[in-house]
Amino acid sequence: MGVKKQPGRRTVLSVEQEKELVSILQDMESRLFGLTVTDVRRIVFVFCELDANSNTFSQDDEMAAQNWLNYFSVVILHWQ
Predict the structure, then answer these.
(1) pLDDT value of residue 38
(2) Residue 34: CA count within 13 A, CB half-sphere
(3) Kind and range of the H or E element at 69?
(4) Fewest Cβ atoms nearer than 10 Å: which of 24, 31, 63, 64?
(5) Measuring CA to CA, how many Å separate 36 from each of 14, 68, 73?
(6) What's 7's DSSP letter?
(7) What is the pLDDT of residue 28?
(8) What is the pLDDT of residues 41-59, one digit of tens each?
(9) Quick one: 63 exposed, middle or buried, by C-beta within 10 A (0-12, 13-18, 19+)?
(10) 76 burial level (CB within 10 Å; 0-12, 13-18, 19+)
(11) SS3 state of residue 74
(12) pLDDT (tens digit per residue) in 4-46
């Protein structure tokens, strides 16, 4: 009996939290908010802070890292 391990870094959000975040962003898009990449990165930061998720996002910039958003975009495309 082995231990099941996932390759790579620990994720910031659980699958459920990622789906909730996608739902929030899609709702904002459907209401024609016209979010920029910077807007999305800030929303993700606040989402994580409100959920008390430990993350490595910049406390000074108060936004998720660009590379995190790039990876998250790939995850969203995988779901569709």
Answers:
(1) 93
(2) 0
(3) helix 66-79
(4) 31
(5) 24, 15, 14
(6) S
(7) 92
(8) 999 999 888 877 777 788 8
(9) buried
(10) middle
(11) helix
(12) 655 556 677 888 888 898 899 889 999 998 899 999 999 999 9
| CA-atom Rg of the chain in angstroms | 14
How far from chain centre, in Å, is Cα 68?
Answer: 7
| Measured distance CA(7)–CA(51) in Å, rounded | 25
- 69, with CB counted inside 10 A (0-12, 13-18, 19+), is middle
pLDDT of residue 71: 86
Supply the pTM of this predicted model. Answer: 0.75
